[in-house]
Amino acid sequence: MNILTNKKVIISLLIVLGIVFPFIIPNLYYLHIMTLAFIWTIAVYGLNLLAGYTGYLSLAHGGFFAIGAYVIGILTVKLEMGFWLSFLLAPLVTMFIGLIIGLFALRTKEHFFAIYTLCVGYIIYLVIDKWEGLTGGVRGLIGIPLPEAIGPISFQSPTAQYYLAFIIFLLVVAVIYRIVHSLTGRTFVAIRNSEDLALSLGISTKRNKLLAFVLSTFFAGLAGAMYAGFIRFIGPEIAYTTITFDLLTYMIVGGIGTFAGPIVGTFLIVIISQNLQFLQDYRMLIFGPLLTLLIIFSPRGIVGFIQMQLYQRKRKKQESLAYKNREEETNAGG
Amino acid sequence: MLEVKGLTKRFGGNVAVKSVDYSVQQGKINAIIGPNGAGKSTFFNLITGVHEPTEGTIIYKNQEITRQPANVIAKLGVARTFQSTHLFEMSTVKDNVIVGHRLRTKSNLFDSIFRTKRLKEEEQQCIAKAEESLDFVGLSHVSDQLVTNISQEEKKRVAFALALATDPEIVFLDEPTAGVNPDETDEMANLIQKMSDKGLTICLIEHKMPMIMRLAHHIMVLNYGEKIAEGTPAEIQKNEEVIKAYLGGTVSA
Amino acid sequence: MELLLQQLFNGLTIGSVYALVALGLTLVYGILHIPNFAHGALYMVGGYITLIMMTEAGLHYILAMVVSICVVGLLSVLMERLVFYPLRHSPPIQDKVAAIGILLFLEALAQFIWGADYRQMSTPFGQVVEVFGLTLTLQRILIVFAAIAVMILLYWFLKKTFTGSTIIAMAQNREGAQLVGINTHKVAILTFFIAGALAAIGASLTSPINLVFPGMGHLVILKAFVIIIIGGMGSIPGAILGGYILGFTESLGATYLSADYKDIIAFVLLILILSIKPQGIFSKGGV
Ligand SMILES: Nc1ncnc2c1ncn2[C@@H]1O[C@H](COP(=O)(O)OP(=O)(O)OP(=O)(O)O)[C@@H](O)[C@H]1O
Ligand SMILES: [Mg+2]
């Protein structure tokens, strides 16, 4: 029992699973799906940092994902820069654009913020779709190069790409873990909880909201750049609201504002979708209602639900233990 | 130590606070009373920087703080509680209070990601502060409970603990005993007294007169945004205008 | 000159539809403070029901539209009962997510049942007429007049009937309305019905000159949001005025600026407005 709920055991098992996966299932298609799932998860972590921990639901997240993808696409294809340098620049440029947009967007709150960012997302999509000279318009950008080999390590094979994505994924998870489990994370949560209260506690909500927003665009941009490097072809549809809503679904199903939520939600849905191939275009027939039902009955998703169960079990145990102790005391006394 | 002059706040055409002059007496329990909608909460909001005053000045420790944002004012040592509590229900009491000391720490994103020595120290500092504050308000025994599972009165105490965790010199309490039963009200009063004994300056909004009369050293009465009286509890109890404002006599009730 | 007049009339047509959709959105927002992201899906379903009633059941355009109004109205009520009502005390992020869930579901459903193709809707009002030297189709004239008629009817209902006035009362002061004995459940249901009906009318009117497809609600709903932010969230005259302003701006922008970027106009407008006034143009309060 204990071993199943022990965090360290679970984490180590998952990492080992990630490492041996290409050997257990040497199927290129599954490798491809897993690699994509790592990438999506990173984007979802960005969204979760902002919407889950700070309480600001951004509907421009798919847009920032696309910006990351297009920056690396434009730098490598149009300007013929090297992969790694472009890969480094992509999230930074996305972050910079995020900073400018965030400065204005964060003056709004709640539904104004959601509508504002939805419009930002749409503008990003329209610009990518229409600005042929820069983005290739509807034809998109083809021929994004593979990452150059680092010393003896080349990234030709899907397995190598899988491990690359896996390593970046692990790094991101570690960084996010540290952010949310530190004073920075606590500050974000205080803002989500009540901005007035946070202000009265001396927290600069403006600065911290901007920080959360910029971080979220950083991870969106990073995921976008990884996606472009992996798929090697990008078109304007990756900037469409569909991507934002997909990411949102992963986050809500896994558990908004929970640490494990993005992984659980993304992998679960990606894997289920693969097994319901016939559903592809209609997957929202299931996930749409699931989204709505979860938010009504378990607003913190699967992970939040499990956390609550574990907590309640612990509480009951403590109570019965306390009760037993009292019994024993009275017995001893009598 | 805190002084306001000609403080006025207009919401559209509605004047919520009308040129109020007031000074908070250091180390004392200062009370503000008045009928519903008199502008008491707004008065607090102006001083603590939640709202910008339309006119007037606010001076704290010889420094003008008018129009400073709330977080800056909090850093100067001004803490407050709200009329309704805004705690995070799905998290433990202690986790709620830890962030209260955040304003005295300097760790940034870099420290968080690399878990620097500074971050570790400051985290310990915040946790220690939270434990100390919870102990002070008498909630050590529930510090690991989820907020959603504790009573209304305990939530009010958590809000006190949060305010105390900021290391304040002056604390503004907006109706700390609203929705709390009579027995517990007495205990809250004792807690407020204990805070005052510790050397904190208290500024308190309350509707419960017996409690005010017992606790306060100094009372100001607001009505329709205007200061209509000010003085010791005994003086206020006798004041004609105050009695009129309260429609005859509930002051002494 | 003639081009200008033609574009102005186009603006009037588009604006009429925008106003109808925005009206529904603003009513729901006014009463329940829900930004209903699923409103665009109602619009889309409205288009499909009319189309299907005409092609499959052989109904006349007008009759098909009536069926569509009823179906979408009820769908909208169902949404309120099953989703928004249970979420009424939840943090604001939740009803938005729930609405998005419904939106995704309805779109997938439409695609599942009716396919992803763009479909044409026929109309008995296809004739071309000449008015003041302008060549107009009867359908466009119908859009303008029908929309105006619906708005007048709505206005009369809200201002002159008792039931209508309860909606206004609740929009102005929720607690107050409850205190004077207004049944807030009923008002919410009614409001959602009207909002759905308006979306269905808008979609049915415009479908013969546009197309029917699962994603047809996307841009419209976004623009409706822009409109009600311009006009003041919850304001009825604001929604109408905003609808026409956007209609005119777009049709003129398409002609004189860039047809490619005409859809961007609304969003840029919104971004500008909210960047300057984060709480919308007509926000109350002294902050
Ligand atoms: N943010 C605001 N916007 C507009 N009007 C406001 C705002 N805050 C307060 N008011 C108005 O200012 C007046 C004073 O309100 P305030 O909350 O300060 O009263 P109060 O004395 O604290 O009342 P209570 O005892 O009920 O808490 C009221 O008329 C209220 O409607
Ligand atoms: Mg008050």
From TrEMBL, chain A:
<feature type="transmembrane region" description="Helical">
    <location>
        <begin position="57"/>
        <end position="77"/>
    </location>
</feature>
<dbReference type="Pfam" id="PF02653">
    <property type="entry name" value="BPD_transp_2"/>
</dbReference>
<protein>
    <submittedName>
        <fullName>Branched-chain amino acid ABC transporter permease</fullName>
    </submittedName>
</protein>
<feature type="transmembrane region" description="Helical">
    <location>
        <begin position="247"/>
        <end position="272"/>
    </location>
</feature>
<keyword id="KW-1133">Transmembrane helix</keyword>
<dbReference type="InterPro" id="IPR043428">
    <property type="entry name" value="LivM-like"/>
</dbReference>
<feature type="transmembrane region" description="Helical">
    <location>
        <begin position="284"/>
        <end position="306"/>
    </location>
</feature>
<keyword id="KW-0812">Transmembrane</keyword>
<feature type="transmembrane region" description="Helical">
    <location>
        <begin position="31"/>
        <end position="50"/>
    </location>
</feature>
<dbReference type="InterPro" id="IPR001851">
    <property type="entry name" value="ABC_transp_permease"/>
</dbReference>
<keyword id="KW-1003">Cell membrane</keyword>
<feature type="transmembrane region" description="Helical">
    <location>
        <begin position="210"/>
        <end position="235"/>
    </location>
</feature>
<keyword id="KW-0472">Membrane</keyword>
<feature type="transmembrane region" description="Helical">
    <location>
        <begin position="83"/>
        <end position="105"/>
    </location>
</feature>
<feature type="transmembrane region" description="Helical">
    <location>
        <begin position="112"/>
        <end position="128"/>
    </location>
</feature>
From TrEMBL, chain B:
<dbReference type="InterPro" id="IPR003593">
    <property type="entry name" value="AAA+_ATPase"/>
</dbReference>
<keyword id="KW-0813">Transport</keyword>
<dbReference type="InterPro" id="IPR032823">
    <property type="entry name" value="BCA_ABC_TP_C"/>
</dbReference>
<dbReference type="InterPro" id="IPR051120">
    <property type="entry name" value="ABC_AA/LPS_Transport"/>
</dbReference>
<keyword id="KW-0547">Nucleotide-binding</keyword>
<dbReference type="InterPro" id="IPR027417">
    <property type="entry name" value="P-loop_NTPase"/>
</dbReference>
<dbReference type="Pfam" id="PF12399">
    <property type="entry name" value="BCA_ABC_TP_C"/>
</dbReference>
<protein>
    <submittedName>
        <fullName>ABC transporter ATP-binding protein</fullName>
    </submittedName>
</protein>
<dbReference type="Pfam" id="PF00005">
    <property type="entry name" value="ABC_tran"/>
</dbReference>
<dbReference type="InterPro" id="IPR003439">
    <property type="entry name" value="ABC_transporter-like_ATP-bd"/>
</dbReference>
<dbReference type="GO" id="GO:0005524">
    <property type="term" value="F:ATP binding"/>
</dbReference>
<feature type="domain" description="ABC transporter">
    <location>
        <begin position="2"/>
        <end position="249"/>
    </location>
</feature>
<keyword id="KW-0067">ATP-binding</keyword>
TrEMBL record, chain C:
<keyword id="KW-0029">Amino-acid transport</keyword>
<dbReference type="InterPro" id="IPR001851">
    <property type="entry name" value="ABC_transp_permease"/>
</dbReference>
<keyword id="KW-0812">Transmembrane</keyword>
<keyword id="KW-0813">Transport</keyword>
<dbReference type="InterPro" id="IPR052157">
    <property type="entry name" value="BCAA_transport_permease"/>
</dbReference>
<dbReference type="Pfam" id="PF02653">
    <property type="entry name" value="BPD_transp_2"/>
</dbReference>
<feature type="transmembrane region" description="Helical">
    <location>
        <begin position="187"/>
        <end position="205"/>
    </location>
</feature>
<feature type="transmembrane region" description="Helical">
    <location>
        <begin position="264"/>
        <end position="282"/>
    </location>
</feature>
<feature type="transmembrane region" description="Helical">
    <location>
        <begin position="37"/>
        <end position="55"/>
    </location>
</feature>
<keyword id="KW-1133">Transmembrane helix</keyword>
<feature type="transmembrane region" description="Helical">
    <location>
        <begin position="61"/>
        <end position="85"/>
    </location>
</feature>
<keyword id="KW-1003">Cell membrane</keyword>
<feature type="transmembrane region" description="Helical">
    <location>
        <begin position="136"/>
        <end position="158"/>
    </location>
</feature>
<comment type="similarity">
    <text>Belongs to the binding-protein-dependent transport system permease family. LivHM subfamily.</text>
</comment>
<feature type="transmembrane region" description="Helical">
    <location>
        <begin position="12"/>
        <end position="32"/>
    </location>
</feature>
